Inverse folding.
């Protein structure tokens, strides 16, 4: 649960505040100009990002609201003649609900501040004392998601590298290749799988399994992973055991051949 981990809550608070501000700007733009397609695209991106974050923390009521908002904005994108009123109403509900959560979480986070430094110290000592397993590169544009996955894998003994852009991911691969890359699908599809093509071109993709990470439904995610040539897929979850199990299972498979995906 997010409230049990001050570092995660800190990232969640910071990221959610940015999303709130962005959603309010898009809402105001749509109220002023209902045909503003740029505002619709921005709302769609924010709703998708918010739902992905909320899959990683224990806030099911907000997650349901973000899902409804994403659906309403998706209908706006598909039907340009549709009135934005339903989407705007859901934006207002989401903003109010998220604001309430942030106020409560901020108060709780401040109350945990004295113990935060001590907790960090204990975790650092604990991780340093463990023999590290293989290295995993996690690529996601959400600080909250990166924090959850990094924590889960490090506690299981993995060495974890993180990157929040495709460029940072390629830079991270300049050194010793990781044993596995866990890649946010939204980054992978920003340019029709451009990052996967870049990995393939420099040879890393053929040596290193890439697992797509997304909040898409499992059947759709499986099909997308197959289409893009990824080694596997994992639906976003805050369940540390599920994350570790998926990574471990993928690493237990025979190494990929160097001839192609």
């Amino acid at each position: 649960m997010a409230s049990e981990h001050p570092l995660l809550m800190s990232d969640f608070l910071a990221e959610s505040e940015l999303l709130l501000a962005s959603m309010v700007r898009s809402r105001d733009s749509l109220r002023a100009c209902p045909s503003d397609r740029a505002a619709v695209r921005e709302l769609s991106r924010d709703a998708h990002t918010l739902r992905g974050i909320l899959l990683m923390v224990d806030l099911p009521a907000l997650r349901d609201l973000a899902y409804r908002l994403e659906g309403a904005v998706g209908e706006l994108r598909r039907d340009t003649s549709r009135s934005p009123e339903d989407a705007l109403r859901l934006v207002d509900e989401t903003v109010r609900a998220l604001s309430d959560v942030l106020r409560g979480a901020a108060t709780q986070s401040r109350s945990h501040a004295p113990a935060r430094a001590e907790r960090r110290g204990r975790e650092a000592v604990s991780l340093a004392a463990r023999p590290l397993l293989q290295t995993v590169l996690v690529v996601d544009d959400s600080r909250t998601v990166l924090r959850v996955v990094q924590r889960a894998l490090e506690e299981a003994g993995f060495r974890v590298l993180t990157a929040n852009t495709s460029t940072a991911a390629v830079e991270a691969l300049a050194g010793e290749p990781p044993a596995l890359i866990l890649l946010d699908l939204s980054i992978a599809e920003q340019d029709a799988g451009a990052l996967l093509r870049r990995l393939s071109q420099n040879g890393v993709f053929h040596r290193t399994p890439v697992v797509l990470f997304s909040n898409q439904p499992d059947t759709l995610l499986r099909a997308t992973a197959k289409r893009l040539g990824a080694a596997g897929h994992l639906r976003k979850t805050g369940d540390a055991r599920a994350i570790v199990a998926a990574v471990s299972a993928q690493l237990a498979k025979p190494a990929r051949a160097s001839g192609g995906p």
